Amino acid sequence: MDSYNPLHENLYEKVKNSRLLVVGAGGIGCELIKNLVLTGFHRLDVIDLDTIDVSNLNRQFLFQTCHVGKSKALVARESALRMAPNAEIVARHDTIFNNEYNVKYFKGFDLVLNALDNLTARNHVNRMCLAADVPLIESGSAGYLGQVMVIKKGVSECYECHPAPRRKTFPGCTIRNTPSELIHCVVWAKYLFNQLFGEEDADQDVSPDQATKQENKKEEDAAASGDHKQLIKPIERVNTRKWAKNCDYNPEMVFNKLFNEDIKYLLSMDKLWKKRKAPTPMQWNKDTDCEMSSFDHQQMLAIEQNMALFHQSVNALKVKLEEENAKGEEHLYWDKDDSAAMNFTAAAANIRASIFSIEQKSVFDIKAMAGNIIPAIATTNAIVAGLIVMQIFDILMDRIEECRNVLVCSLPRPNKRLLDAVHLDPPKKGCYVCSEKREVTVAVPFDRLTLLDLRDKVLKGQLGMLAPDVEILGRGGIVLMSSDEEDYDEDMMKKKLSDFQLVDGSRLLADDFLQNYNVVVNLVAPDAESPLEDEALFKMVVTTTTKPVEEAAESKPAQAESATKRKLEESNGDEAKKAKIGS
User: Fold this and answer.
1) Which residues have a Cβ under 8 Å from the Cβ of 489 and sit 6 or more positions away?
2) 348: exposed, middle or buried (C-beta count within 10 Å: 0-12, 13-18, 19+)?
3) Most buried residue, 228, 250, 308, 466, by CB count within 10 Å?
């Protein structure tokens, strides 16, 4: 590679000398790292918190069976060095939210490449790159769909100029081992339904991953030394449906296996919990009243009620399965409008959420969250990674005007192409992240919204801030909220906004020092033009300069289509719709 390279001399020199940051070493990340080192990029930093799971091996080709349980970033580095021994690759098994990766850190790179799998991290990297004035190439895939987006401060739209769609694909290892959001638990519960009552799919196994060879070796050593405290009780890899039938779908036995034994097994995998909060196993409570004749579907249930609902729904689904078997049908079909299936999903999801210290929701909310899950496709990841490198060339040669936002389509467009490319749009006027004057307007019930709600649901949940400090504008800089843990006052956080004399028209300045980001929050009272739906605690209000991002705090975040995808659909018009119908 040193003796010959098809790149012209000027570009090749920039390629060799550029320092790149790759955030994420999963599906797209593996393909991208491989492309980079084979192209001639020799100065790379790779950050990823995840460890390698067996299910990754069918598409993340830098990893092999012997790597299961190890850090993705560290193994990706080892594999890349075998392709390019002279490369300087720094791998970090860490979260990108670590305070160490501040604005100064980002300024040390010529380019940042996102290969992430969650919205929160994408928003964070977007803001850090804007603050450091470093170009960012954003990417993603969902099944046969893929996207590459070029972001340059003051030149193009940022990632948050248009709310991104909430992803519907989740890594299998996250679902089975390390859920961090309620949606992960909902997906797990739907998988569990199919394993017990529905159409079985090997890719939807809900059991924890097998212990790594190193952990098995540790168990053997412990057995040899007589140290039974360190012994790991292995999970028997038996067919879930067969196991459930053998125990006659006994709800208590099913509960203890899923929420006690499997969780204890997960705890034996020490590496998973070094930088994550460990789950707490849950044992069936024999004193639980298993009668749940009626309940409010919009009210969050206590854990004992979820246990009772789980018990009741397992029995109900067992009877349904027997009835279908008698008719010659092999399994049940999950339907969100089937009360037994929905109750089972909600109860199982909430119980698992409680075990992993995740906020729970009502059956009504979980019903809204339960959607189709799209599988990851290796070919799409490879195409996206190749498109990223093509954009890098133009950026390094200072040809930002030649860059394109590209959408990988699942079916050929009317022009016979699977790739649609559009010119970069300028920054969106009024964007609350990348515009010079950053403001948002939020309709809130001042007598109901607490300071804690304002922080968690509005500033963190909706605006994506990490550690907001808030002061009231126009009152001489009165501090309403501090991110310093020493200043945290639990009683004050429970107070309503009205207790602080905040009224219609009040203005707040929210500042996040971790992201080097601030925004003015205009508070208004709900009215006929911006009413709150049901029991929602806030709503983003339409202004003359910003496009609406309306959202009820108590419902699943609604994410609009990305700018690139929307532009492509608008440009294709009816022809694109016909192509979709024809599929």
Assistant:
1) none
2) buried
3) 308
pLDDT digits (tens, 9 = 90+) for 201-253: 766 777 776 554 444 455 445 444 544 444 445 545 567 788 888 899 999 99
Picking from 183, 331, 166, 310, the residue whose alpha carbon sits closest to that of residue 245 is: 331
β-strand pairing of 19-23 with 111-114: parallel
Of 542, 335, 533, the closest CA to residue 442 belongs to 542
pLDDT tens digits, one per residue of 196-208: 998 877 667 777 7
Residue 337: what pLDDT? 73
Q: How confident is the model at residue 65 (pLDDT cuts 50, 70, 90)?
A: very high
H or E segment to which residue 149 belongs: strand 145-151
Give CA–CA dist 190/371, Å, rounded: 10
The Cα angle at residue 209 between residues 380 and 358, in degrees rounded to 5: 85
pLDDT exceeds cutoff 50 at 549 = no
pLDDT of residue 573: 36
- Cα–Cα distance measured from residue 509 to residue 468, given in angstroms and rounded to the nearest whole number: 9
- On whether the CB atoms of residues 133 and 153 are closer than 8 A, the answer is yes
Name the pTM for this structure.
0.64
Active site residue 173: yes
Which three-class secondary structure state does DSSP give residue 21?
strand
Average pLDDT, the chain: 83
Cβ atoms 297, 342 nearer than 8 A: no
Q: Which residues have CB under 8 Å from 420's CB, separation 6+?
A: 406, 407, 409, 413, 568, 572
Report the alpha-carbon angle 117-121-124, nearest 5: 150
507 strand-pairing partners: 522
Q: Are 504 and 524 within 8 A, CB to CB?
A: yes
Segment 83-127, tens digit of pLDDT: 999 999 999 999 999 999 999 999 999 999 999 988 889 999 999
Provide the 8-state DSSP code for 163.
P
Which two tokens mark 321?
Answer: 């399965």
Q: For residues 460 and 515, is the Cβ–Cβ distance under 8 A? A: no
**Residue percentage of the chain with pLDDT more than 70:** 83
208 token code pair: 């924890």
- Read off φ and ψ for residue 454, nearest 5 degrees: -60, -45
Residue 496 sits at φ, ψ, to 5 deg, of: -80, 160
Catalytic, out of 161, 173, 185, 431: 173
